[in-house]
Amino acid sequence: VEASVPEPQREAWRKHSAREFNTSDQFEDAVVRHIETTLARSLYNVDESGAYAGTALAFRDRLVIEWNRTQQNQTSADQKRVYYLSLEFLMGRALDNAMLNVGMKDVARKGLDELGFRMEDIIDQERDAALGNGGLGRLAACFLDSLATLNYPAWGYGLRYRYGIFRQEIVNGYQMEVPDYWLEFNPWEFPRHDVTVDVQFYGTIRKYMDDSGKQHTAWENGEIVTAVAYDAPIPGYGTTTTNNLRLWSSKASHGEFDFTKFNSGEYEASVADTQRAETISAVLYPNDSLDRGKELRLKQQYFWCAASLFDIVRRFKKSKKAWSDFPNQVAIQLNDTHPTLAIPELLRILIDIEGLEWDEAWSIVQKTFSYTNHTVLPEALEKWSVPLVQNLLPRHLQIIYDINLQFLQFVERNFPKDRDMLSRVSIIEESQPKMVRMAYLAVIGSHKVNGVAELHSDLIKTTIFKDFVKIHGPDKFTNVTNGITPRRWLHQANFRLSELIASKLGGYDYLNDLTLLHKLENYVDDKDFRKEFQDIKYANKLRLARYIKEAQGITVNPASLFDIQVKRIHEYKRQQLNIFGVIHRYLELKEMSPADRKKAQPRVSIFGGKAAPGYWMAKTIIHLINQVSEVVNNDKDIGDALKVVFLEDYNVSKAEIIVPASDISEHISTAGTEASGTSNMKFVLNGGLIIGTCDGANIEITREVGEDNIFLFGNLSEDVEDLRHAHYYSGLNIDPSLQRVFDEIRNGMFGDAGQFSSLVNSITDHGDYYLVSDDFKSYVETQKLIDEAYKNQEEWLTKTITVVARMGFFSSDRCIEEYAQEIWNTEPVVPPAKPQNGA
Ligand code: GL7
């Protein structure tokens, strides 16, 4: 039963309803009130963290008011909602974004100043919400921003991890992982202790017949864990629409602990049960593009899918509509295969609980779900062992077998001549043990499947899903090239540039329509504009240089060329190619006369990124970078000609400092391996150029900015197979310059060579799977071209302005519109004009 205030009392409610601050005076009232009452502190014990808390709570009040209005308005609009299911939401900080979207940043700046604080220092107090690994999680965060900005009724569903991605510390050149307990103070979440779902694991299946003779299946006697909802408001930019991100937290179903056990003296057992339940949402798995098949991970996935589906179905049932209307009210996007269990779960709800027939239930499921693939790397494709699923989710395994049976019968009818087809496309891989192929289940259960950049979407059709294109037809497969939110990645991260752009484009409309950037091309020759553009880049480099000094103790000259590669450390992303190139440069510099060295283009090579804790090769790469940094930075001969920096603990808030400061950024994956990349877009949008391979979104960036404005190198994806084959049968072709690099590493130039032998040997002795040897020469040559190009600062500046003007395509707003039209078939709900305060 919904509690609602009776009509006669509503007037009183309206009169007293929460007021929003509008002036800096009112803002200060709110901050001080929160510090004094919510935090129980005073002007005698308030530091910057207290001022952050007060500011965040003041803005939160405003957000909550809009959030409530939005939810009411969307419910009465009775339109289809989008549910974005993602195990990762890499949100970063919320305060700056809240200030921007609420539109009160100047008011807050003035208020804080009057209270004795600097806005930038206050923003800096916030800890990142780091519930993600990398691109996939950050994409989900950009999508939430765009969904709200475009007024789509949309909810994110995820897990509320107690520990986000670990904090990285570098100790003696090695990565150490430190837990990220980020919840100490999180004003942005609202625990909903009244919104809970009981989720079952293990248990048994019972078939029975009802009075009318109908067959039923019951799943029972399992272990129950309770999901508690924690909600966070997601404000849109330039609109009052404030959507919801709902994250589930796990707890023991009987509350704190089991009193029967407690009273009978089994105190420890009772606590252990509680802890076991809480473990489910305790920690984010820190693997980027790798499937480890751990039972706890499967538990996380089911726990989150079951809670979310229950919630979605509960909301739908309130509308009292017929089940056939479900797909008109609900679109569920599966962010990778992680939420694929939602497919058998919805079938289970519809058939076992709601009593629908299979065919009707299946048709609803297919119309409701769509699936985004984010990688073709075989080690990332999820498979779960059948015995594991059988034990944990016995009813779901039956349903998966039923889906498979129907599907294979269909295939058999349509492709009677292709006998191998059945085993190739079966959801169940006939291995020892048998495995459930989650990607196949996701494809079969969805009406649309998309890749995240053109090349990637083509590749999935010709490789991993080739047979499914034949079976379902090509229309099921589509492309939605990734994008980024210009609010965070331009306006927030690079305010001066945003301001300059706005001054030329007549305001900030471009933040809602990034294609307007093209008008900047009119200013490419404008002297004052050029000067200001260049000054801004320099100021951003200076800011990064200061940060490098403070964080890493390394002095770098901001006039040098800043060359940046920041992303998860992975062999396919080829940080090893980059560091080998740096070593090559160092060796060349060493051989030069001092006079020639002076003439060389000074460069700072900046790296950042985390390695998965169990990924030894990635950790070795980090170690090598740090050792090279140690040697090069302390070599008196070299001076400013080359500096090497490894920035500790790369994350979203650090990216906001790093991205605007690049001259060149590196996106140099082996062709065909990086599905899209999204930081490539962020760097270019901030006036940095790219050195990159013909991979992922680099290709579309090239199409947009023009071949002259990007530095491409290396082999093409269509040649990768042959090259690998050639390595195997005829050996490698190692360029002397690369051989020289290997020799110096093996001779101990960067410390005990033994530590790096696995890395060097992976190339020289173990097939060089990622084609480092094939691409090294063209990489180094392209870096030379960059040195030359950078010397002509005027031409360089023209290029950097031009590329910014041509980045309009890469807004995540454009992607969301494509998803809405091509995949979700959904319309925005425009919020009504804002009522007056108290009205
Ligand atoms: C990724 C891709 O590797 C990356 O190229 C892409 O930009 C991102 C978002 O679509 O998804 N796939 C993946 O498994 N991870 C990614 O970052 C972890």
Automatic annotation (TrEMBL):
**What InterPro entries does this protein's entry cite?**
Glycg_phsphrylas (IPR011833), Glyco_trans_35 (IPR000811), Pyridoxal_P_attach_site (IPR035090)
State the EC number(s).
2.4.1.1
By its UniProt entry, which Pfam families does this protein fall under?
A: Phosphorylase
Q: Which cofactor does it need?
A: pyridoxal 5'-phosphate
Record keywords, A-Z = Allosteric enzyme, Carbohydrate metabolism, Glycosyltransferase, Pyridoxal phosphate, Transferase
- Residues that the record marks as modified (N6-(pyridoxal phosphate)lysine) are K682
Catalysed reaction, written as an equation:
[(1->4)-alpha-D-glucosyl](n) + phosphate = [(1->4)-alpha-D-glucosyl](n-1) + alpha-D-glucose 1-phosphate
User: In the UniProt record, does the keyword S-adenosyl-L-methionine occur?
Assistant: no
The record's annotation in CDD domains points to:
GT35_Glycogen_Phosphorylase (cd04300)
Q: Superkingdom, according to UniProt?
A: Eukaryota
Q: Name one GO molecular function term.
A: pyridoxal phosphate binding
Per the record's keyword annotation, is Transferase included, yes or no?
A: yes
Q: Which example biological process does GO assign this protein? A: glycogen catabolic process
Q: Which NCBIfam families match?
A: P_ylase (TIGR02093)
User: What role is this protein assigned?
Assistant: Allosteric enzyme that catalyzes the rate-limiting step in glycogen catabolism, the phosphorolytic cleavage of glycogen to produce glucose-1-phosphate, and plays a central role in maintaining cellular and organismal glucose homeostasis.
Q: Which PANTHER family match?
A: GLYCOGEN PHOSPHORYLASE, GLYCOGEN PHOSPHORYLASE, LIVER FORM
What protein family is recorded?
Answer: Belongs to the glycogen phosphorylase family.
Name the chain's protein.
Alpha-1,4 glucan phosphorylase
